[in-house]
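Reading a protein record of the kind used here takes little practice once its layout is understood. The reader may check this reading against the record printed directly beneath this paragraph.
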Amino acid sequence: MDEQLRVGLVGAGPWAEMIHAPGIANHPGTTLTGVWARRPEAAASLAATFGAEPFEDYTAMLSTVDAVAFCVPPGVQGPMAIEAARAGKHVVLEKPIAESVEVAEELAAAVAEAGVASLVVLTRRYAPETKEMLAQLHRTGGWTGADSRWISGALLDGPFSNSPWRHDKGALDDVGPHAFDLLDAALGEITDVLAANVTDTGLWQLILQHAGGATSTVSLCLSLPMQPPFADFTVFGVNGHRTLTNRDTPALECFTNLLDDFVAMADSGTTTHECDVRRGLHLQRIIDLARRKAGA
């Protein structure tokens, strides 16, 4: 790009401080122009750290930027992202993209109508090791099933343990999109949730149906005191099995890779990507179906 993409950041919590703000501020194609948060003092502090302008009025910030990166709970993100898209701003969205399928549909429609770029922060999809594994799986073929487990004590201790929306929605909404996205990318589109159950301890277990006949199982929990956290992803079929446990690429580097794609999309006028808002809507529908199947 001839000029850096001016990005406003919505949110000033731990993930914004760890990933979004430094990623945007240090990327050669973006500049962190402004920060808005529900707590003005948090916005001011984060903005000062990265040389951005704090805003107490979200609409005022929109008038100064080309794009908005969101790092707030889904119930906050959905309506604000719709406003940003309708104002012609490109959007970087956290997962899940909204609090409900209805709002997610409205957001996807707003992005499409505005013709702006959108990407969802499905962190591991931007890791080179993940891209290589998916490419290998597609070259080989013959995969009939998969198993994915994302288990941690994130709600018990650490930077996200005081997150109200994570305590309210649990692992299904927080890490579920990551698991569903990888399974979907590996085996084909998830077309149904065959079974879903959640325990009193917050352990979700699901069986998913994929286009083409493959099935997969998923276990998700944020309230088991495991150190380090445990996450793996295994596919199997006539050609044996393949497992992805390599998380060597740090989250900040994954976010930088996302910004590479985002800047290129904005520069070229491209509005489609395998992780764009339509992907977020698809994952939102899976979450909704799983919750209904579990009676939760």
